[in-house]
Amino acid sequence: MFAGNSQRAFGGTMWRAVATVISGLILIGGCGGDDPVPREPEPTPSSTATPPPMPDQARENTVEGAAAFVTYYVDVLNYAAVTGDVDELEELTDPSCEGCARYVELFRNTYADGGAISGGAWSLGTITIRDDGIETLASTDVQINEGQYTATSSSEPEATSRTSERLTFGAVLTDAGWSTTQLFLGDPK
User: Fold this and answer.
1) How far apart are CA 104 and CA 137, in angstroms?
2) Domain DUF6318: where (predicted)?
3) pTM of the entire structure?
4) Pick from 97, 104, 146, 144: nearest CA to 124
5) Which residues lie below 8 Å from residue 2, measured CB to CB, with a gap of 6+?
6) Total domain count for the chain?
7) Per-residue pLDDT for 61 more than 70?
8) CA-to-CA distance for 119 and 106, rounded, in angstroms?
């Protein structure tokens, strides 16, 4: 956690999020009022799908590098949601990030149980960076597109509505690269 601040963990809103984007995956928070940047069409499940490549800038120890990493993290999250392949998402997630672990578990369990997720991609607005020297906090408005969530092979699909949330990602840069340490609704306190 960000030293000296209490953050609202987003675990209590996890299922509301699933109901909105995967039934509403809501986790990305925002930066003041800018319209979200349009994104490329999201991947569809396929046996040939591969995780998106990490841009070089997402490895840099700069404000721009932190923003590029958060953008990449969301690209990987979108990929994991529609494929069930959570390997890269786990690699980018610090074990201390409970909210991140819940998404990994949701995606893994959904596909293991014969379920599926389609649509519901997250699109980021302008990212605001705050660095306290220990952890970098990246806040952004996230637009979550319409989608469909099927929990198991015997479940009926549930449509999800377009929504938006303000999320903050915590990240640290180690010798291995950036890692997401927390994910919560709203701005840092």
Assistant:
1) 21
2) 52-178
3) 0.77
4) 144
5) 132, 134, 135, 137, 170, 182, 188
6) 1
7) yes
8) 16
CATH code of the domain covering residue 77? 3.10.450.50
Q: What secondary structure does DSSP assign to 154-180, as a single string? A: TSPPEEE--EEEEEEEEEEEETTEEEE
Measured between alpha carbons, how far is 53 from 181 in angstroms, rounded to an integer?
21
Does residue 45 lie in a domain region? Answer: no
Question: Averaged over 54-75, what is the pLDDT?
Answer: 97
What are residue 2's phi and psi, to 5 degrees?
A: -70, 125
Domain coverage including residue 121: 11-39+56-185
Using alpha carbons only, give the angle 11, 13, 15 rounded to the nearest 5 degrees.
95
Provide the token pair at 26: 């809501």
Give the residue-averaged pLDDT of 101-130. 97
Query: Residue 65 corresponds to which amino acid?
Result: G
